[in-house]
Amino acid sequence: MPLVNPQKMLEAARDGGYCVGAFNIVDFLSIEAVVAAAEATRAPVMLQTSSGVIKKFGVRKLVAMARLAADHSPVPVALHLDHGTDVKVLSEAIKAGYSSVMIDASEHPFEKNVAITKSVVEEAHAAGVSVEGEVGRVVGVEDDIVVHQDDAIYTTPEEALEFQRRTGVDFLAAAIGTAHGFYKVEPKLNIDTLRKIRAQATFPLVVHGGTGLPFEVIQELVRAGATKMNLSTQIKKTYIDGLYDYIAAKRTEYDIIKVLAHAKSELVTMISGYIEVLGGAGKAE
C-alpha cells in the first residue's frame, strides 16, 4: 500500500496499549529488512531517516526507496524524518512526500522551541504531513546532534502539555532519561513522568533511545504510555555485525549477494523481536 501518515497508527497504539516501532534505516537493504519484519509480524511500522542518511541520499531518493518497499507491502508503512534541525530540509521532506517529520528545536529555550516548532507544524499540516516535536533534551549522539549528560533536560508533565497545546504537534518526544546510542551507564529513567503525561494527554508520546534498554524496561515504558519508540544504533550494530560475521566465516567466498542476504536476515530477526516486545505484532489491521 502507499506510504501512510502515521497519526492513525500511533493513535491506535495509544488506545490499544501497544507501541509502534520506528526504525532508522541507512540504505535500501535496511528499508527492505524493516518492511519484511513488519510483514512477518503483521505490524504497522515507521521508517526513519536521520540527518546523515539524508545528506547521503537526499530526501527525494529516500522517498522513492520507501515508496518502492511500501507499495508492495500489505502492512502500513510510514516514512519519518528523525531529529530535523534544519527547517529548509524539513520543508524539502514535506514537499517530497514524507509521511511525517520531527522538528527538533530542543536546543533552544522553551519559547523559541515553541515558535520554530509551530512554524513547521503549520507548513506540514497544510500538506497533510504530521509532526513530532521534542521538549527537554535527550542525551547522547544522533548524527550531528550531540547532547552531553550535563546538558540533558528532563521534561515535566506541565511543560509537555503546554508545548503541545501551543505548537499543535501531533506526537511528542519527552526527555525522561533515555539516551541515543549505547548506554555507558545504567540510565536513570523517570517513567513516572511519562505516566503523568499520558494520563492527561490526548496525543501519542514518543520515547527515543530504545537501543540497549532491557526488554522488560521497554515493556514498562509501553505500559506507561509510549506509543512510538525509536531504534537506531541497534540497526547499525546488527547490520555491521552481520556483514562482518559472514565475511569472517567465509573469507574467500567473495559472493556479495550472500553477504548482504545474511545481514538482511539478521536485521529482520532483530527487528521482528523488537516489534514483538513493543506489542505491535498482529496490529497491522
What's the quick description here?
The protein has helices at 7-16, 28-41, 51-57, 59-71, 87-96, 110-126, 157-167, 191-200, 215-224, 233-249, 256-278; strands spanning 20-24, 45-49, 77-84, 100-103, 130-135, 140-142, 145-147, 171-174, 205-207, 226-231.
- Tell me the strand order in the biggest sheet: 1-2-3-4-5-8-9-10
Rounded mean pLDDT is 91
CATH architecture designation: Alpha-Beta Barrel
Q: Note poorly predicted spans.
A: 145-152
CATH superfamily: Aldolase class I
For the record, the count of structural domains works out to: 1
> In total, how many beta strands?
10
Beta-strand percentage? Answer: 15-25%
SSE ordering: HEHEHHEHEHEEEHEHEHEHH
Helix content: 40-55%
Number of helices: 11
Any idea what the radius of gyration is? 18 Å
Determine the structural class based on helices, strands and strand pairing: alpha/beta
**Dominant shape:** globular
- Kindly, what is the distance between the CA atoms of the first and last residues, rounded to a whole number of angstroms? 13 Å
CATH third-level topology? TIM Barrel
State the major sheet.
8 strands, parallel, barrel
- Give the CATH level 1 class: Alpha Beta
